[in-house]
Amino acid sequence: MQTFESKIINIKEIAENTISIETEKPTDFIFEAGQFLQFIIPTEEQEVLRSYSIASSPQEHTFLFCIKLVKDGISSEYLRNLKKGDILKMKGSFGRFTEEENKNSLFFVSTGTGLAPTISIIKDQLKNKENKNKIHLLLGFRSENNIFWREELENLEKEYKNFTYMLTLSQPSENWNQLQGRVTLYFNHPSSSYKYFMCGNQGMVSEIRQILLENGIDNSQIHFEIF
Ligand SMILES: Cc1cc2nc3c(=O)[nH]c(=O)nc-3n(C[C@H](O)[C@H](O)[C@H](O)COP(=O)(O)OP(=O)(O)OC[C@H]3O[C@@H](n4cnc5c(N)ncnc54)[C@H](O)[C@@H]3O)c2cc1C
Predict the structure, then answer these.
(1) How confident is the model at residue 21 (pLDDT cuts 50, 70, 90)?
(2) Where does the chain cross the membrane (predicted)?
(3) How far is the CA of 85 from the centre of ligand 1 (A)?
(4) Distance of CA 67 from the midpoint of ligand 1 (Å)
(5) Segment 139-193, tens digit of pLDDT
(6) Rounded to an integer, what distance in angstroms lies between the CA atom of residue 52 and that of residue 71?
(7) Does residue 120 have its Cβ closer than 6 Å to ligand 1?
(8) Cβ-count burial of 104 within 10 angstroms (0-12 exposed, 13-18 middle, 19+ buried)?
(9) From 48's CA, which of 42, 111, 137, 189 has a CA 20 to 30 Å away?
């Protein structure tokens, strides 16, 4: 597996405890939308590996990541202190949370940074693979402070008539007057004409998967990645 060094072009806070990191991509690096890389994180004792999904699509010239910084996490504490121009060591790509074809209707359910591989696949399907079938995203964050990349999703929705998305907050402030509650609340009557992709925490993925199976959706139509 290819190990390489990648220079940080941009690093910024995009939501509460969440940063995006854009890095250079080695020339001719090939990956599939939805895959992840492993960051090689130096520590005093040894190097440790942590997986991060690529949020850019394969045709973009840089890698984009979104990373939730968890308290006292080894990688989180390391990444928190990086700046533009620093070098990240990585290897990959890995993962089978991908969609190679362009002829399926796709339904995505994501929470938090689970948006990373999801938006990579959506951009790849709409822009590169020119999928004209329905593509829908049901997206959940905890509160207003946790929302990121909404403008990008709105732009995709404007540009591509076959793409729609719904955003819900599980713990919004009292000023929030849009959808609220967990994503599972809005996931009803799944249709066998879609392929389903879930990415986020274990609880959400298990619940959506159970709803799908109870409604007779075949396992082969269900894809998921748990962070
Ligand atoms: C396929 C895949 C893709 C992923 N993609 C992404 C992504 O795109 N974005 C993203 O943000 N994350 C992603 N993740 C999660 C990511 O790999 C890391 O798990 C995450 O960033 C936490 O790593 P860390 O080193 O900061 O925390 P760790 O050091 O692994 O710690 C995790 C948590 O456990 C706690 N902890 C650690 N040690 C102890 C201990 N001894 N006792 C009690 N508590 C402890 C820490 O305080 C922390 O809260 C992905 C994971 C997978 C498997």
Answers:
(1) very high
(2) none
(3) 24
(4) 10
(5) 999 999 999 999 999 999 999 999 999 999 999 999 999 999 999 999 988 999 9
(6) 17
(7) no
(8) middle
(9) 111
Is position 100 within any domain?
A: no
Element (H, E) at 77: helix 74-80
C-alpha distance from residue 205 to each of 147, 194, 222 (Å): 20, 17, 10
- Closest residue by Cα to atom 2, ligand 1, is 51
On whether ipTM exceeds 0.90, the answer is yes
Same domain membership, residue 60 and residue 115: no
Is 163 a domain residue? yes
Give the pLDDT confidence of 81-104 residue by residue, as tens digits.
999 999 999 999 999 999 999 999
Ligand 1 in reach of 49 Cβ (< 6 A): no
Prior bond of 75 cis (ω within 30°): no
Question: How far, in Å, is the centroid of ligand 1 from the Cα of 154?
Answer: 29
117 Cα nearest atom in ligand 1: 8
What's the domain count of the chain?
2
Residue 175's pLDDT is 96
The verdict on the CB of residue 213 being under 6 Å from ligand 1 is no
Residues 221 and 159 in one domain: yes
Residue 185 beta carbon below 6 angstroms from any ligand 1 atom? no
- Does the beta carbon of 160 sit less than 6 angstroms from any atom of ligand 1? no
